[in-house]
Automatic annotation (TrEMBL):
A Pfam family matched in the record: DUF58
The UniProt record lists the keyword S-adenosyl-L-methionine: no
InterPro entries: DUF58
Regions that span the bilayer: 7-26, 32-49
Keyword Transmembrane tagged: yes
Protein name (Swiss-Prot/TrEMBL): DUF58 domain-containing protein
Domain (DUF58): residue spans on this chain: 207-319
UniProt entry keywords in alphabetical sequence: Membrane, Transmembrane, Transmembrane helix
Length: 407
């Protein structure tokens, strides 16, 4: 039975047809039998030679038309993909079916199928466009190529291995100016906050050692030429304290994936704003495996945080206050804590109070989508009473408006 199971029913059907035509020629004879045998033999020869169409040795390449030189794109972006195919050999191929796979880390998979008609040189290219991509890491799987004979009886397959990986960044919004933050530390809280946040430096006459990630405009060329080592300039005491963005990843706090994506986008937007204003910024990502990035002023440091934000998920179970207390030794007085979370009320109040008790400055970036107006007003009044800065954000567009001074 093994030899019968090895081949399909179509194969045995064609083999039987050939056998019948042969027996008909041998036992009946005549021109008709001979003509039938020649036709069936030619058909069988064509089907047999189709097996060596060259599809199994297909070569090709893949091009991302709108992200050729970028390993990352922003969430919501749709990629235009082009696949070039070269099929070796000479046997005619009516068409080639192309199946390409885009796999997101975590198991989500997109399958794209299209048809290609090769030219006389057995070459061709096809294009398709992905749907808007979610935040995360992606890679392209193997590309399946298949073709059939002109009768559609047998299918022949090949495979292209064109590995390519890329990341999809969280969506961001440009924050022109965080007015209340600057007013806060230039006003009545200026002396106490900045005194706690000042740090000692190795600055001598406006020159310090070069730190990897410093911008080109910060390099002190004269000092670099004199000393023979890289030097940077404009290293002054910070007028604003170090900032730590706290991203709450508690799975029970978020009502939907969209709410968590909004939280990640807010954190990414604040990170961009801090980098544009040369603020030392860090991140406390509170989840199943909490991670802390201490505040630094460096492009490479920002890139590490962004790479972390690409792949975070709402998988936390521990209360925020417990994580803060567990890592209390890492926080110095004067840090500006921006807590991005949908939690509010009695659930969040102890965490904000603990931050203040440690002589740090809390701010609540509240994911207020699907929260009633009455509950929002009640929590805002509580924040005002305790002197805590807070913003209710229901969409990413609201973030820039809220921080820009719009109430």
């Amino acid at each position: 039975m093994g030899i019968f199971a090895r081949y399909s029913a179509r194969f045995w059907g064609i083999a039987s047809l050939f056998a019948f035509s042969l027996f008909y020629l041998l036992f009946q004879g005549g021109k008709l039998a001979f003509m039938i045998f020649i036709i069936v033999a030619a058909l069988c020869l064509y089907l047999a030679l189709s097996r060596w169409s060259g599809i199994s040795k297909t070569q090709g390449g893949r091009t991302l038309l709108n992200a050729e030189h970028e390993a990352v794109v922003e969430a919501g972006t749709s990629l235009a993909v082009q696949i070039q195919v070269q099929i070796p050999g000479f046997w005619p191929i009516p068409y080639v079916s192309i199946k390409d796979r885009l796999v997101r880390r975590g198991g989500e998979e997109h399958l794209f199928e299209t048809l290609l008609i090769p030219d006389w040189k057995r070459r061709g290219e096809v294009s398709y466009r992905t749907p808007p991509l979610r935040r995360g890491y992606y890679h392209f799987g193997d590309t399946d190529c298949s073709t059939e004979d002109i009768f559609g009886l047998f299918q022949h397959k090949g495979r292209l291995e064109l590995p390519y990986s890329f990341g999809v960044l969280p969506q961001k919004v440009h924050i022109r100016e965080w007015k209340q933050l600057h007013q806060l530390f230039r006003g009545v809280h200026h002396h106490s906050a900045t005194t706690r946040s000042h740090r000692e430096t190795t600055q001598i006459n406006g020159v310090r050692e070069f730190i990897y990630g410093d911008r080109l405009s910060r390099i002190h060329w004269n000092a670099t030429a004199k000393t023979g080592t890289w030097k940077s300039k404009e290293f002054e005491r910070e007028s604003l304290p170090k900032t730590v963005i706290v991203l709450d990843r508690n799975m029970r706090a978020y009502r939907s994936k969209e709410h968590f994506e909004l939280a990640v986008s807010i954190a990414a937007s604040l990170l961009d704003y801090a980098a544009s204003r040369d603020l030392a910024v860090g991140l406390l990502s509170v989840g199943k495996n909490s991670k802390y990035f201490e505040p630094k002023l460096s492009a490479s440091h920002q890139k590490v945080i962004v790479n972390h934000l690409i792949d975070v998920e709402p998988d936390g179970t521990y209360p925020l206050i417990d994580v803060l207390k567990d890592r209390a030794r890492l926080f110095t007085p004067g840090i500006f804590f921006t807590v991005v979370t949908p939690q509010f009320g009695d659930t969040l109040a102890p965490s904000l109070a603990w931050i203040e008790q440690r002589q740090m400055n809390p701010c609540h970036m509240w994911i207020a989508a699907d929260v009633t107006a009455a509950e929002q007003d009640r929590w805002k009044r509580h924040l005002q009473t305790t002197g805590v800065m807070g913003y209710a954000v229901s969409s990413l567009d609201e973030l820039a408006l809220a921080l820009g001074g719009r109430k």
